């Protein structure tokens, strides 16, 4: 694998400082990697505060601080349909000090938008998977439906009148409704938001009628009665909301939306840094209090190393591409 320009510059500076001796410069670089981290680490969340990515970053950040003895800060950079924050990380030095709380939505966004300023595969190195989930179909209590069948019947009576909130165009909260429309033979209107937090706020307030929401934000709202749960994608019910049926149980089989969350870095960081970050992240994922916190949000704990996440990412590129084509999603600027 070809080293990045950042690595070349770092090595050149180290050699000059050592009087031009290559072996001394390489030794300095190796020592710097072995001592990682020596300063604060930033985890960028490409969404506003309040969504599942933000929750996970703030759950893992303090734990990484404890392990490394260096401050790990969360930096919310929402906007541009996650492209702003993601691009910031893509262009950061690959030294392990700027990381991304990545989600599977980046896979779809990279295939839908024509002018994305980064390559989601080539410009990022996966560090470790930390959680995964399916999605809940939730509606505002004012919408007169309690089942999937009732929602389909209402949508057919009012074609194009029902609207749904999405946290990003092209992500799972957008693909879910499009897939639902295709399977059910209905048509609804998308209302895009910059993140899951703002989308849930307007859904609870009645500005929009329904959403395919991440359980981390939807479960508390359903339990409190501020939203009504209709169904869950995937093949099993949620432990924290066992009364919520799957779409298959509701008479609409085949609706699956695999969603994952992972820590990622700019492409080609030093292997020593990847190994340290991956080992620390997987250690945190195995902690009982972390697993319990993730479960309470309606997510599943997920422990995967860098190699496994790279393979999952590759598989999802193919799966998402087929779904985008089947749902007839057009390329966006």
Shape by Cα distribution: globular
Judged by helices, strands and strand pairing, the structural class is alpha/beta
| Major sheet description | 6 strands, mixed
Please state the CA-atom Rg, rounded to the nearest Å: 21 Å
Q: Roughly what percent helix?
A: 40-55%
* Order of H and E elements: HHEHEHEHEEHEHEHEHEEHHEH
Count of alpha/pi helices:
12
Number of extended strands: 11
Between the first and last Cα atoms, what is the distance in angstroms?
32 Å
The order of strands across the largest sheet is 2-1-3-10-4-11
Mean pLDDT over the full residue set? 86
Strand content: 15-25%
Low-confidence stretches: 1-31
Task: Provide the fold topology.
Elements: H1 5-17, H2 22-34, E1 41-45, H3 52-68, E2 72-76, H4 83-90, E3 98-103, H5 105-112, E4 124-133, E5 136-139, H6 148-157, E6 163-166, H7 172-184, E7 189-192, H8 196-205, E8 210-213, H9 215-223, E9 228-232, E10 259-266, H10 271-285, H11 288-296, E11 300-304, H12 306-326
Parallel strand pairs: 1-2, 1-3, 6-7, 6-8
Antiparallel strand pairs: 3-10, 4-10, 4-11, 5-8, 5-9
Helix pairs in contact: 1-2, 3-10, 5-12
């Amino acid at each position: 694998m070809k080293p990045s320009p950042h690595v070349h510059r770092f090595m050149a500076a180290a050699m000059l400082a050592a009087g031009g001796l290559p072996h001394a410069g390489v030794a300095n670089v190796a020592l710097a990697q072995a001592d990682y981290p020596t300063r604060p680490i930033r985890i960028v969340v490409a969404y506003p505060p309040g969504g599942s990515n933000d929750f996970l970053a703030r759950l893992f950040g303090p734990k990484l601080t404890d392990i490394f003895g260096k401050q790990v800060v969360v930096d919310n950079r929402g906007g541009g349909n996650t492209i702003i924050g993601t691009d910031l990380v893509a262009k950061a030095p690959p030294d392990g000090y700027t990381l991304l709380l990545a989600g599977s939505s980046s896979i779809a966004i990279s295939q839908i938008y024509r002018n994305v300023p980064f390559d989601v595969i080539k410009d990022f190195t996966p560090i470790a998977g930390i959680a995964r989930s399916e999605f809940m179909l939730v509606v505002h209590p004012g919408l007169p439906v309690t089942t999937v069948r009732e929602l389909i019947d209402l949508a057919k009576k009012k074609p194009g009148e029902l609207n749904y909130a999405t946290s990003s165009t092209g992500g799972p909260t957008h693909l879910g409704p499009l897939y639902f429309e295709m399977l059910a033979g209905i048509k609804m209107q998308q209302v895009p938001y910059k993140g899951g937090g703002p989308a849930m706020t307007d859904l609870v307030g009645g500005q929009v009628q329904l959403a395919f929401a991440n359980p981390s934000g939807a479960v508390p709202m359903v339990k409190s009665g501020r939203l009504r749960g209709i169904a869950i994608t995937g093949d099993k019910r949620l432990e924290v909301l066992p009364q919520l049926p799957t779409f298959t149980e509701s008479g609409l089989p085949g609706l699956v939306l695999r969603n994952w969350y992972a820590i990622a870095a700019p492409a080609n960081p030093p292997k020593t840094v990847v190994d340290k970050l991956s080992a620390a992240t997987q250690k945190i994922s195995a902690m009982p209090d972390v697993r319990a916190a993730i479960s309470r949000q309606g997510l599943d704990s997920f422990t995967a190393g860098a190699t496994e996440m790279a393979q999952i990412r590759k598989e999802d590129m193919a799966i998402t591409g087929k779904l985008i084509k089947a749902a007839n999603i057009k390329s966006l600027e």
